[in-house]
Amino acid sequence: MADAAGRLAALVERATGSPLPLRVRAWDGSEAGPPPAPGAPLVVIRDRRALRRVLYKPGELGLARAWVAGEIDIEGDLYAALDALAGSIWERDDPAGGAGRDGVVGKALRGLSAARSLGDASVRAMLREAVALAGPGLPPPPPAEEVRRTAGPRHTLSRDRRAISHHYDVGNAFYERVLGPSMVYSCAYWEKPGGTLEDAQASKLDLICRKLGLREGMRLLDVGCGWGSMVLHAARHHGVTAVGVTLSTEQAAFARERIAREGLADRIEIRVQDYREVADGPFDAISSIGMAEHVGSAQYLAYAGTLYGLLVPGGRLLNHQIARRPMDDESGYEVDAFIDAYVFPDGELAPVGTTVSLLERAGFEARDVEALREHYALTLRAWVANLEDHWAEAIRLTTPGRARVWRLYMAASALAFEHNRIGVNQILAVRPERDGGSGLPATRAAWLAAPEGG
Protein backbone atom coordinates (compact mmCIF):
# COMPACT_ATOMS: atom_id res chain seq x y z
CA MET A 1 0.00 0.00 0.00
CA ALA A 2 1.56 3.27 -1.13
CA ASP A 3 1.83 6.18 1.33
CA ALA A 4 -0.20 4.56 4.11
CA ALA A 5 0.96 7.24 6.58
CA GLY A 6 -0.22 10.09 4.35
CA ARG A 7 -3.60 8.45 3.82
CA LEU A 8 -3.95 7.87 7.55
CA ALA A 9 -3.01 11.48 8.35
CA ALA A 10 -5.58 12.78 5.87
CA LEU A 11 -8.25 10.50 7.30
CA VAL A 12 -7.56 11.59 10.90
CA GLU A 13 -7.71 15.27 9.91
CA ARG A 14 -11.02 14.80 8.07
CA ALA A 15 -12.49 12.87 10.98
CA THR A 16 -11.30 15.15 13.80
CA GLY A 17 -10.79 18.51 12.17
CA SER A 18 -7.22 18.59 13.50
CA PRO A 19 -3.90 17.48 12.01
CA LEU A 20 -1.88 14.66 13.52
CA PRO A 21 -0.11 15.98 16.64
CA LEU A 22 2.91 13.71 16.07
CA ARG A 23 4.78 12.36 13.11
CA VAL A 24 3.77 8.83 12.12
CA ARG A 25 5.63 6.06 10.31
CA ALA A 26 3.38 3.39 8.81
CA TRP A 27 4.05 -0.28 8.14
CA ASP A 28 5.06 0.48 4.53
CA GLY A 29 7.82 2.85 5.64
CA SER A 30 5.96 6.02 4.67
CA GLU A 31 5.81 8.96 7.09
CA ALA A 32 3.42 11.86 7.62
CA GLY A 33 2.63 14.53 10.19
CA PRO A 34 4.70 17.41 11.55
CA PRO A 35 8.14 17.79 9.94
CA PRO A 36 10.90 15.72 11.56
CA ALA A 37 12.65 17.50 14.40
CA PRO A 38 15.62 16.47 16.57
CA GLY A 39 14.37 14.69 19.69
CA ALA A 40 10.72 14.74 18.60
CA PRO A 41 8.92 11.43 19.25
CA LEU A 42 7.68 9.31 16.37
CA VAL A 43 4.62 7.04 16.40
CA VAL A 44 5.41 3.80 14.61
CA ILE A 45 2.52 1.65 13.31
CA ARG A 46 4.29 -1.63 12.69
CA ASP A 47 1.27 -3.59 11.47
CA ARG A 48 -2.02 -2.53 9.86
CA ARG A 49 -3.77 -4.96 12.22
CA ALA A 50 -3.54 -2.14 14.75
CA LEU A 51 -6.09 -0.20 12.70
CA ARG A 52 -8.46 -3.17 12.65
CA ARG A 53 -8.27 -3.34 16.43
CA VAL A 54 -9.18 0.35 16.70
CA LEU A 55 -12.00 0.13 14.15
CA TYR A 56 -13.61 -2.76 15.99
CA LYS A 57 -12.93 -1.29 19.46
CA PRO A 58 -12.80 2.51 19.01
CA GLY A 59 -11.02 4.55 21.63
CA GLU A 60 -8.59 3.62 24.34
CA LEU A 61 -9.01 -0.16 24.52
CA GLY A 62 -8.36 -0.74 20.81
CA LEU A 63 -5.24 1.41 20.97
CA ALA A 64 -4.11 -0.37 24.13
CA ARG A 65 -4.45 -3.77 22.50
CA ALA A 66 -2.33 -2.61 19.56
CA TRP A 67 0.30 -1.22 21.96
CA VAL A 68 0.47 -4.37 24.08
CA ALA A 69 0.73 -6.53 20.95
CA GLY A 70 3.66 -4.43 19.71
CA GLU A 71 1.76 -3.25 16.62
CA ILE A 72 2.13 0.39 17.74
CA ASP A 73 5.29 1.81 19.28
CA ILE A 74 6.90 5.13 20.17
CA GLU A 75 10.43 6.04 19.13
CA GLY A 76 11.97 8.80 21.21
CA ASP A 77 10.57 10.46 24.33
CA LEU A 78 7.55 8.44 25.51
CA TYR A 79 6.45 11.17 27.92
CA ALA A 80 6.45 13.82 25.18
CA ALA A 81 4.47 11.52 22.91
CA LEU A 82 1.85 10.78 25.53
CA ASP A 83 1.56 14.47 26.37
CA ALA A 84 0.98 15.32 22.71
CA LEU A 85 -1.55 12.53 22.21
CA ALA A 86 -3.46 13.01 25.46
CA GLY A 87 -5.75 15.78 24.25
CA SER A 88 -6.73 13.81 21.17
CA ILE A 89 -7.16 10.37 22.67
CA TRP A 90 -7.42 10.17 26.44
CA GLU A 91 -8.72 13.48 27.79
CA ARG A 92 -12.38 14.46 27.85
CA ASP A 93 -13.30 17.63 25.99
CA ASP A 94 -14.07 19.78 29.00
CA PRO A 95 -12.25 22.73 30.54
CA ALA A 96 -11.77 20.97 33.87
CA GLY A 97 -9.33 18.54 32.26
CA GLY A 98 -10.73 15.52 34.07
CA ALA A 99 -9.39 12.04 33.42
CA GLY A 100 -11.64 11.05 30.53
CA ARG A 101 -12.38 7.98 28.49
CA ASP A 102 -11.30 9.18 25.06
CA GLY A 103 -11.17 12.43 23.14
CA VAL A 104 -11.89 13.49 19.60
CA VAL A 105 -10.15 10.50 17.99
CA GLY A 106 -12.23 8.01 19.93
CA LYS A 107 -15.42 9.88 19.16
CA ALA A 108 -14.55 10.09 15.48
CA LEU A 109 -13.77 6.38 15.30
CA ARG A 110 -17.02 5.58 17.04
CA GLY A 111 -18.79 7.65 14.44
CA LEU A 112 -17.03 5.78 11.64
CA SER A 113 -17.99 2.43 13.15
CA ALA A 114 -21.63 3.53 13.26
CA ALA A 115 -21.57 4.92 9.71
CA ARG A 116 -23.71 2.13 8.28
CA SER A 117 -26.67 3.58 10.15
CA LEU A 118 -25.93 7.15 8.98
CA GLY A 119 -26.87 8.79 5.74
CA ASP A 120 -23.88 11.11 5.49
CA ALA A 121 -21.98 10.19 2.33
CA SER A 122 -18.76 11.79 3.61
CA VAL A 123 -18.87 9.65 6.74
CA ARG A 124 -19.39 6.51 4.67
CA ALA A 125 -16.46 7.50 2.49
CA MET A 126 -14.22 7.91 5.55
CA LEU A 127 -15.30 4.48 6.76
CA ARG A 128 -14.43 2.91 3.39
CA GLU A 129 -11.01 4.57 3.50
CA ALA A 130 -10.41 3.37 7.07
CA VAL A 131 -11.36 -0.20 6.17
CA ALA A 132 -9.10 -0.07 3.11
CA LEU A 133 -6.18 1.06 5.28
CA ALA A 134 -6.87 -1.55 7.97
CA GLY A 135 -7.19 -4.40 5.52
CA PRO A 136 -9.82 -7.14 5.36
CA GLY A 137 -10.70 -9.53 8.13
CA LEU A 138 -11.52 -9.48 11.79
CA PRO A 139 -9.09 -8.06 14.38
CA PRO A 140 -6.70 -10.47 16.08
CA PRO A 141 -7.76 -11.73 19.51
CA PRO A 142 -6.82 -9.53 22.47
CA PRO A 143 -3.26 -9.99 23.75
CA ALA A 144 -2.86 -12.69 26.37
CA GLU A 145 -2.11 -10.08 29.05
CA GLU A 146 -5.70 -8.79 28.94
CA VAL A 147 -8.00 -9.83 31.79
CA ARG A 148 -10.42 -12.61 30.93
CA ARG A 149 -13.73 -11.54 32.45
CA THR A 150 -16.01 -13.80 34.44
CA ALA A 151 -19.66 -13.29 35.24
CA GLY A 152 -20.83 -12.09 38.63
CA PRO A 153 -20.61 -9.04 40.83
CA ARG A 154 -17.38 -7.15 41.45
CA HIS A 155 -15.41 -7.31 44.69
CA THR A 156 -16.49 -10.71 45.94
CA LEU A 157 -13.67 -12.44 47.80
CA SER A 158 -12.98 -14.83 44.89
CA ARG A 159 -13.08 -12.13 42.19
CA ASP A 160 -10.80 -9.84 44.19
CA ARG A 161 -8.31 -12.70 44.57
CA ARG A 162 -8.25 -13.17 40.79
CA ALA A 163 -7.84 -9.43 40.19
CA ILE A 164 -4.94 -9.16 42.66
CA SER A 165 -3.28 -12.25 41.21
CA HIS A 166 -3.46 -10.74 37.71
CA HIS A 167 -1.58 -7.65 38.82
CA TYR A 168 0.87 -8.93 41.40
CA ASP A 169 1.56 -12.59 40.60
CA VAL A 170 3.68 -11.82 37.54
CA GLY A 171 6.99 -12.71 39.12
CA ASN A 172 8.80 -11.18 42.07
CA ALA A 173 11.98 -10.90 40.02
CA PHE A 174 10.18 -8.63 37.54
CA TYR A 175 9.04 -6.34 40.34
CA GLU A 176 12.55 -6.28 41.80
CA ARG A 177 13.80 -4.81 38.53
CA VAL A 178 11.06 -2.15 38.50
CA LEU A 179 10.79 -1.23 42.18
CA GLY A 180 14.40 -1.60 43.19
CA PRO A 181 15.71 -2.91 46.53
CA SER A 182 12.97 -1.24 48.61
CA MET A 183 10.24 -3.40 47.00
CA VAL A 184 7.64 -0.75 47.83
CA TYR A 185 4.87 -0.37 45.26
CA SER A 186 3.36 2.95 46.34
CA CYS A 187 4.22 6.64 46.29
CA ALA A 188 7.60 7.48 47.83
CA TYR A 189 8.29 10.61 49.91
CA TRP A 190 11.06 12.71 48.37
CA GLU A 191 12.44 14.77 51.26
CA LYS A 192 15.69 15.67 49.51
CA PRO A 193 15.99 16.84 45.88
CA GLY A 194 18.04 14.38 43.92
CA GLY A 195 17.72 11.64 46.53
CA THR A 196 17.49 7.97 45.61
CA LEU A 197 14.26 6.03 45.22
CA GLU A 198 15.31 3.78 48.11
CA ASP A 199 15.84 6.77 50.42
CA ALA A 200 12.48 8.23 49.40
CA GLN A 201 10.66 4.95 50.08
CA ALA A 202 12.32 4.63 53.50
CA SER A 203 11.21 8.20 54.26
CA LYS A 204 7.65 7.34 53.27
CA LEU A 205 7.55 4.26 55.49
CA ASP A 206 8.95 6.20 58.44
CA LEU A 207 6.48 9.04 57.88
CA ILE A 208 3.63 6.53 58.10
CA CYS A 209 5.07 4.96 61.24
CA ARG A 210 5.31 8.38 62.90
CA LYS A 211 1.80 9.33 61.86
CA LEU A 212 0.57 6.09 63.41
CA GLY A 213 2.54 6.77 66.59
CA LEU A 214 4.15 3.34 66.50
CA ARG A 215 6.27 2.36 69.46
CA GLU A 216 7.59 -0.79 71.07
CA GLY A 217 4.97 -3.29 72.15
CA MET A 218 2.23 -2.08 69.81
CA ARG A 219 0.43 -4.38 67.38
CA LEU A 220 0.17 -3.28 63.73
CA LEU A 221 -2.03 -4.60 60.91
CA ASP A 222 -0.81 -3.79 57.38
CA VAL A 223 -3.65 -4.31 54.89
CA GLY A 224 -2.32 -5.14 51.45
CA CYS A 225 1.19 -5.68 52.79
CA GLY A 226 2.82 -6.36 49.43
CA TRP A 227 6.35 -7.68 49.73
CA GLY A 228 6.51 -6.89 53.45
CA SER A 229 8.39 -3.59 53.43
CA MET A 230 6.08 -1.72 55.80
CA VAL A 231 5.90 -4.43 58.47
CA LEU A 232 9.67 -4.94 58.27
CA HIS A 233 10.32 -1.22 58.71
CA ALA A 234 7.85 -0.93 61.57
CA ALA A 235 9.24 -3.94 63.44
CA ARG A 236 12.89 -3.07 62.80
CA HIS A 237 12.75 0.63 63.64
CA HIS A 238 9.71 1.00 65.92
CA GLY A 239 9.62 -2.27 67.85
CA VAL A 240 6.09 -3.38 66.95
CA THR A 241 4.70 -6.81 66.31
CA ALA A 242 2.88 -6.93 63.00
CA VAL A 243 0.47 -8.86 60.82
CA GLY A 244 0.56 -8.29 57.06
CA VAL A 245 -2.22 -9.55 54.80
CA THR A 246 -2.13 -9.88 51.02
CA LEU A 247 -4.07 -11.81 48.39
CA SER A 248 -0.92 -12.47 46.36
CA THR A 249 0.76 -15.78 47.06
CA GLU A 250 3.98 -14.61 45.36
CA GLN A 251 4.15 -11.48 47.48
CA ALA A 252 3.57 -13.48 50.65
CA ALA A 253 6.34 -15.96 49.85
CA PHE A 254 8.79 -13.14 49.12
CA ALA A 255 7.86 -11.25 52.30
CA ARG A 256 8.28 -14.35 54.48
CA GLU A 257 11.75 -14.97 53.06
CA ARG A 258 12.79 -11.36 53.80
CA ILE A 259 11.44 -11.57 57.34
CA ALA A 260 13.22 -14.86 58.01
CA ARG A 261 16.52 -13.46 56.70
CA GLU A 262 16.25 -10.53 59.11
CA GLY A 263 15.42 -12.76 62.06
CA LEU A 264 12.01 -11.17 62.65
CA ALA A 265 9.76 -14.18 62.11
CA ASP A 266 8.82 -14.15 65.81
CA ARG A 267 7.43 -10.59 65.47
CA ILE A 268 5.92 -10.49 61.98
CA GLU A 269 3.28 -12.76 60.47
CA ILE A 270 2.39 -12.69 56.76
CA ARG A 271 -0.94 -14.15 55.70
CA VAL A 272 -2.60 -14.77 52.34
CA GLN A 273 -5.87 -13.40 53.56
CA ASP A 274 -8.54 -10.85 52.62
CA TYR A 275 -8.91 -7.94 55.03
CA ARG A 276 -12.54 -9.05 55.44
CA GLU A 277 -11.31 -12.34 56.90
CA VAL A 278 -9.10 -10.87 59.64
CA ALA A 279 -10.72 -11.89 62.92
CA ASP A 280 -7.99 -11.57 65.55
CA GLY A 281 -8.17 -7.88 66.42
CA PRO A 282 -7.86 -5.56 68.11
CA PHE A 283 -4.81 -3.81 66.70
CA ASP A 284 -3.22 -0.62 67.99
CA ALA A 285 -2.72 0.73 64.46
CA ILE A 286 -3.59 -0.13 60.86
CA SER A 287 -1.80 0.89 57.69
CA SER A 288 -3.46 0.58 54.29
CA ILE A 289 -0.98 1.77 51.65
CA GLY A 290 -2.06 1.71 48.02
CA MET A 291 -4.61 -1.01 48.68
CA ALA A 292 -7.94 0.83 48.98
CA GLU A 293 -8.09 1.49 45.21
CA HIS A 294 -8.99 -2.19 44.89
CA VAL A 295 -11.95 -1.99 47.30
CA GLY A 296 -14.59 -0.43 45.04
CA SER A 297 -17.22 2.20 45.79
CA ALA A 298 -19.92 -0.32 46.62
CA GLN A 299 -17.74 -1.93 49.30
CA TYR A 300 -15.91 1.11 50.64
CA LEU A 301 -18.11 1.86 53.64
CA ALA A 302 -17.91 -1.80 54.66
CA TYR A 303 -14.11 -1.66 54.24
CA ALA A 304 -13.91 1.37 56.51
CA GLY A 305 -16.22 -0.27 59.04
CA THR A 306 -14.14 -3.45 59.08
CA LEU A 307 -10.94 -1.54 59.81
CA TYR A 308 -12.73 0.53 62.47
CA GLY A 309 -13.82 -2.68 64.18
CA LEU A 310 -10.27 -4.06 64.17
CA LEU A 311 -8.80 -1.08 66.05
CA VAL A 312 -8.64 -0.41 69.76
CA PRO A 313 -10.30 2.83 70.94
CA GLY A 314 -7.78 5.55 70.19
CA GLY A 315 -6.17 3.40 67.49
CA ARG A 316 -5.03 5.09 64.32
CA LEU A 317 -5.56 4.25 60.64
CA LEU A 318 -3.24 5.55 57.92
CA ASN A 319 -5.08 5.26 54.59
CA HIS A 320 -2.76 6.03 51.64
CA GLN A 321 -4.84 6.11 48.45
CA ILE A 322 -4.91 7.48 44.89
CA ALA A 323 -7.76 9.91 44.22
CA ARG A 324 -9.38 11.19 41.04
CA ARG A 325 -10.80 14.61 40.40
CA PRO A 326 -14.51 15.12 41.21
CA MET A 327 -17.06 15.04 38.40
CA ASP A 328 -20.27 16.99 37.94
CA ASP A 329 -22.13 13.70 37.50
CA GLU A 330 -20.54 11.14 39.81
CA SER A 331 -22.95 8.46 38.58
CA GLY A 332 -21.27 8.71 35.18
CA TYR A 333 -17.81 7.68 36.40
CA GLU A 334 -16.36 4.64 34.65
CA VAL A 335 -13.19 2.73 35.32
CA ASP A 336 -10.42 3.52 32.84
CA ALA A 337 -10.62 0.98 29.99
CA PHE A 338 -6.88 0.32 29.65
CA ILE A 339 -6.24 0.18 33.39
CA ASP A 340 -9.23 -2.12 33.95
CA ALA A 341 -8.27 -4.52 31.16
CA TYR A 342 -4.52 -4.69 31.68
CA VAL A 343 -3.40 -3.25 35.01
CA PHE A 344 -5.86 -3.11 37.93
CA PRO A 345 -8.97 -5.15 37.11
CA ASP A 346 -12.00 -3.80 38.99
CA GLY A 347 -9.97 -0.95 40.47
CA GLU A 348 -11.84 2.27 41.23
CA LEU A 349 -10.77 5.78 42.17
CA ALA A 350 -12.79 8.25 44.24
CA PRO A 351 -12.30 11.92 45.12
CA VAL A 352 -10.46 12.43 48.40
CA GLY A 353 -13.51 14.16 49.90
CA THR A 354 -15.61 11.07 49.25
CA THR A 355 -13.02 8.88 50.99
CA VAL A 356 -12.84 11.13 54.05
CA SER A 357 -16.64 11.20 54.25
CA LEU A 358 -16.92 7.40 54.12
CA LEU A 359 -14.24 6.95 56.78
CA GLU A 360 -16.12 9.32 59.08
CA ARG A 361 -19.44 7.60 58.34
CA ALA A 362 -17.81 4.39 59.55
CA GLY A 363 -17.03 6.09 62.87
CA PHE A 364 -13.51 7.42 62.35
CA GLU A 365 -12.42 10.95 63.12
CA ALA A 366 -10.29 12.27 60.24
CA ARG A 367 -7.33 14.08 61.78
CA ASP A 368 -5.05 14.88 58.87
CA VAL A 369 -4.91 14.76 55.07
CA GLU A 370 -1.58 15.17 53.27
CA ALA A 371 -1.44 15.38 49.46
CA LEU A 372 1.59 13.71 47.85
CA ARG A 373 0.70 14.17 44.19
CA GLU A 374 4.08 15.51 43.04
CA HIS A 375 5.86 12.76 44.96
CA TYR A 376 4.04 10.06 42.99
CA ALA A 377 5.07 11.59 39.66
CA LEU A 378 8.71 11.39 40.76
CA THR A 379 8.22 7.81 41.97
CA LEU A 380 6.66 6.67 38.71
CA ARG A 381 9.40 8.24 36.63
CA ALA A 382 11.96 6.37 38.76
CA TRP A 383 10.12 3.08 38.17
CA VAL A 384 9.95 3.70 34.42
CA ALA A 385 13.69 4.41 34.40
CA ASN A 386 14.32 1.14 36.27
CA LEU A 387 12.16 -0.78 33.79
CA GLU A 388 13.88 0.76 30.78
CA ASP A 389 17.32 0.09 32.28
CA HIS A 390 16.38 -3.60 32.67
CA TRP A 391 14.19 -3.90 29.56
CA ALA A 392 15.65 -7.09 28.08
CA GLU A 393 15.61 -8.79 31.45
CA ALA A 394 12.05 -7.63 32.19
CA ILE A 395 10.86 -9.17 28.92
CA ARG A 396 12.62 -12.42 29.75
CA LEU A 397 11.10 -12.51 33.24
CA THR A 398 7.53 -11.90 32.04
CA THR A 399 6.44 -11.31 28.45
CA PRO A 400 7.05 -8.47 25.97
CA GLY A 401 3.37 -7.55 26.30
CA ARG A 402 3.49 -7.38 30.09
CA ALA A 403 6.56 -5.16 30.03
CA ARG A 404 4.86 -2.88 27.50
CA VAL A 405 1.77 -2.65 29.71
CA TRP A 406 3.83 -1.53 32.69
CA ARG A 407 5.87 0.99 30.71
CA LEU A 408 2.79 2.67 29.25
CA TYR A 409 0.80 2.54 32.47
CA MET A 410 3.55 4.02 34.63
CA ALA A 411 4.58 6.73 32.15
CA ALA A 412 0.99 7.81 31.53
CA SER A 413 0.31 7.79 35.27
CA ALA A 414 3.34 10.00 35.93
CA LEU A 415 1.91 12.58 33.54
CA ALA A 416 -1.54 12.28 35.10
CA PHE A 417 -0.09 13.16 38.51
CA GLU A 418 2.02 15.97 37.09
CA HIS A 419 -0.97 17.55 35.36
CA ASN A 420 -3.27 17.14 38.41
CA ARG A 421 -5.64 14.73 36.71
CA ILE A 422 -5.24 12.39 39.68
CA GLY A 423 -3.72 12.74 43.13
CA VAL A 424 -2.66 10.65 46.10
CA ASN A 425 -3.34 11.36 49.76
CA GLN A 426 -2.44 10.06 53.18
CA ILE A 427 -5.45 10.27 55.47
CA LEU A 428 -4.81 9.83 59.18
CA ALA A 429 -7.96 8.75 60.99
CA VAL A 430 -8.59 7.72 64.57
CA ARG A 431 -11.13 5.46 66.20
CA PRO A 432 -12.30 7.81 68.98
CA GLU A 433 -11.72 6.83 72.58
CA ARG A 434 -14.70 6.10 74.80
CA ASP A 435 -14.92 9.71 75.90
CA GLY A 436 -14.78 10.89 72.28
CA GLY A 437 -11.16 12.01 72.36
CA SER A 438 -8.51 11.13 69.79
CA GLY A 439 -5.57 10.49 72.10
CA LEU A 440 -3.33 12.50 69.74
CA PRO A 441 -1.16 15.39 70.88
CA ALA A 442 -2.62 18.78 70.10
CA THR A 443 -0.12 19.72 67.39
CA ARG A 444 1.01 18.01 64.25
CA ALA A 445 4.67 18.53 65.16
CA ALA A 446 4.14 16.59 68.37
CA TRP A 447 2.51 13.56 66.84
CA LEU A 448 4.97 13.48 63.94
CA ALA A 449 7.94 13.53 66.30
CA ALA A 450 10.01 10.37 66.28
CA PRO A 451 9.47 8.21 69.39
CA GLU A 452 12.11 8.25 72.05
CA GLY A 453 14.91 5.98 71.03
CA GLY A 454 13.47 5.76 67.49
TrEMBL record:
<dbReference type="InterPro" id="IPR003333">
    <property type="entry name" value="CMAS"/>
</dbReference>
<comment type="similarity">
    <text>Belongs to the CFA/CMAS family.</text>
</comment>
<feature type="domain" description="Polyketide synthase-like methyltransferase">
    <location>
        <begin position="174"/>
        <end position="432"/>
    </location>
</feature>
<dbReference type="GO" id="GO:0008168">
    <property type="term" value="F:methyltransferase activity"/>
</dbReference>
<dbReference type="InterPro" id="IPR050723">
    <property type="entry name" value="CFA/CMAS"/>
</dbReference>
<feature type="region of interest" description="Disordered">
    <location>
        <begin position="134"/>
        <end position="154"/>
    </location>
</feature>
<keyword id="KW-0489">Methyltransferase</keyword>
<keyword id="KW-0949">S-adenosyl-L-methionine</keyword>
<dbReference type="InterPro" id="IPR020803">
    <property type="entry name" value="MeTfrase_dom"/>
</dbReference>
<protein>
    <submittedName>
        <fullName>Cyclopropane-fatty-acyl-phospholipid synthase family protein</fullName>
        <ecNumber>2.1.1.-</ecNumber>
    </submittedName>
</protein>
<dbReference type="Pfam" id="PF02353">
    <property type="entry name" value="CMAS"/>
</dbReference>
<dbReference type="InterPro" id="IPR029063">
    <property type="entry name" value="SAM-dependent_MTases_sf"/>
</dbReference>
<keyword id="KW-0443">Lipid metabolism</keyword>
<dbReference type="GO" id="GO:0032259">
    <property type="term" value="P:methylation"/>
</dbReference>
<keyword id="KW-0808">Transferase</keyword>
